[in-house]
DNA sequence: GCGATCAGAT
DNA sequence: CACATCTGATCGC
């Protein structure tokens, strides 16, 4: 769950993905995507009243997010207060204090985040520098380098702070399979199941509101069918999705939901209630698309497939791309800067120093060697800082998820602080701190990293077959 | 009767 | 315990 309080230090009079408490008084609201844990407060009466009394405050999001939001009647009061923005189209926004008339202009650019339909990252440019808020995102290697608005000419823009989804900021999530690998695995699995008889059906156990659409469209296209879902309202203006979904239940592929869907499955029934008309019991394979391939121990789910988030090695790649390269271009272009890169050009991410003062974003000069592991430990009875500076210069990395894992760099040799074990991705291993160190050095030296194994088509790599299934 | 918060669940 | 929710109990207005 997102633990981000809603405000960024550079532009503190706007709120993102949080709309409760103090955020109500922001001069503008930004919604990165339409998942509930990023919408806290968004249907609250306090916010509703604020909208009616303000002449200037608006909610900014993508067109698709607006459509998804308004398809839920609980949010229909937003209709007149949403300003949808095109992707990759810098837009100037005036942030007005209605009491004093004081005004600040910023330019915002929406960048596709690859997390679910309509999901974006926000790039803000203004008097307090360039700031990137990623929301939840799932990019592949190389994607960031293709985003025009992260560049200025041939160089990467200097980014003051990155507010980043850190859900999988943990060595145990070093590798998770790519979307393509997952999709191909599902296609193969579904093909081998539904070809057996008309009574062999597939149930996709989709927990979140959005994010499975690429599954629906690909399955629909591959098997020339539609996928049964509970209702179509949210996709009514998205024909490219609507073509592949239906509310009629005569299909072999279902993604329907019911509060008691587990009970339905016990009785060989789908959550939509459908059974074979001639009384033949359905053979149901249940597939759970989730980032958490290990979370289901209840015998109910046959196969778990992962979706949604970026994973650690890619996160490093992304952060490296943003932070180091912009610093590099800064020094190369001779811009005024107090920054100097060390000889190796390798940030001391894994320094053993214990200088606490480097942890929080202080003004002015910062140490070249702020330690990541320091920020992971709860010494001095203080809460874990969600700000980590891992870069020479002024760039900050700020996590927006629940908590930063305590034992980030402590595996596997000195496994002391972990209260529980998370199984590794099937057939991948946990990288030790030495391996991570080397990975980071490779990233810093600009080596191209590709994690595709040759011939990695095996579905077993991504699927966790439950023995009781 | 609604919202906020929390425990418990998948 | 993590995902992204959803449901139900309890408390306060």
From TrEMBL:
Entry-linked InterPro entries: DRMBL, RibonucZ/Hydroxyglut_hydro
Chief localization: nucleus
Gene Ontology biological process terms from the UniProt entry: DNA recombination; double-strand break repair via nonhomologous end joining; interstrand cross-link repair; telomere maintenance
Gene Ontology CC terms, in alphabetical order: nucleus
GO MF entry, a single one: damaged DNA binding
Segments traversing the membrane: 303-323
Similarity-based family: Belongs to the DNA repair metallo-beta-lactamase (DRMBL) family.
Annotated protein name in UniProt: Protein artemis
Organism: Periophthalmus magnuspinnatus
């Amino acid at each position: 769950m997102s633990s981000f309080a809603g405000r960024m230090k550079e532009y503190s009079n706007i709120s993102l993905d949080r709309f409760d408490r103090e955020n109500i008084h922001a001069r503008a609201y930004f919604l990165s995507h339409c998942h509930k844990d990023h919408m806290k407060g968004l249907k609250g009466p306090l916010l509703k009243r604020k909208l009616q009394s303000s002449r200037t405050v608006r909610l900014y999001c993508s067109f698709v997010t607006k459509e998804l939001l308004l398809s839920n009647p609980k949010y229909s009061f937003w209709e007149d207060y949403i300003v949808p923005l095109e992707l990759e189209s810098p837009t100037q926004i005036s942030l007005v204090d209605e009491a004093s008339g004081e005004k600040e202009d910023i330019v915002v650019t929406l960048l596709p985040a690859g997390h679910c339909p309509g999901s974006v990252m926000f790039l803000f440019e203004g008097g307090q520098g360039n700031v990137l808020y990623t929301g939840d995102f799932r990019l592949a290697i190389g994607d960031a380098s293709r985003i025009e608005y992260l560049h200025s000419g041939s160089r990467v823009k200097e980014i003051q702070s990155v507010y980043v989804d850190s859900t999988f900021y943990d060595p145990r999530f070093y590798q998770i399979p790519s979307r393509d690998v997952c999709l191909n695995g599902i296609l193969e699995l579904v093909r081998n199941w539904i070809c057996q008889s008309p009574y062999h059906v597939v149930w996709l156990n989709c927990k979140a509101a959005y994010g499975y659409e690429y599954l629906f469209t690909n399955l629909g296209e591959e098997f020339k069918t539609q996928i049964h879902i509970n209702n179509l309202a949210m996709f009514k203006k998205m024909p490219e999705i609507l073509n592949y979904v239906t509310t009629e239940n005569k299909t072999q592929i279902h993604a329907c939901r019911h509060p008691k869907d587990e009970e339905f499955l016990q009785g060989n029934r789908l959550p939509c209630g459908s059974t074979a008309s001639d009384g033949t019991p359905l053979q149901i394979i249940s597939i759970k698309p989730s980032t958490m391939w290990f979370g289901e121990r209840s015998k109910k789910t046959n196969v778990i497939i992962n979706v949604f988030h970026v994973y650690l090695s890619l996160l490093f790649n992304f952060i490296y791309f943003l932070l180091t390269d912009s610093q590099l271009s800064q020094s190369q272009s001779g811009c005024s800067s107090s920054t100097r890169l060390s000889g190796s050009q390798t940030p001391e991410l894994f320094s053993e120093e214990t200088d606490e003062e480097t942890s929080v974003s202080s003004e002015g000069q910062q140490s070249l060697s702020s330690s990541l592991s320091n920020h992971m430990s709860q010494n001095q009875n203080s809460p874990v800082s969600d700000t980590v500076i891992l870069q020479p210069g002024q760039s900050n990395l700020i996590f927006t998820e629940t908590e930063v894992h305590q034992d980030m760099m402590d595996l596997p040799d000195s496994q002391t602080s972990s209260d529980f074990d998370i199984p590794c991705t099937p057939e991948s291993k946990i990288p030790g701190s030495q391996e991570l160190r080397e990975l980071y050095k490779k990233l810093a030296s600009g080596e191209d990293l590709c994690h595709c194994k040759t011939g990695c088509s095996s579905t077993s790599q991504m699927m966790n077959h439950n023995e009781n299934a």
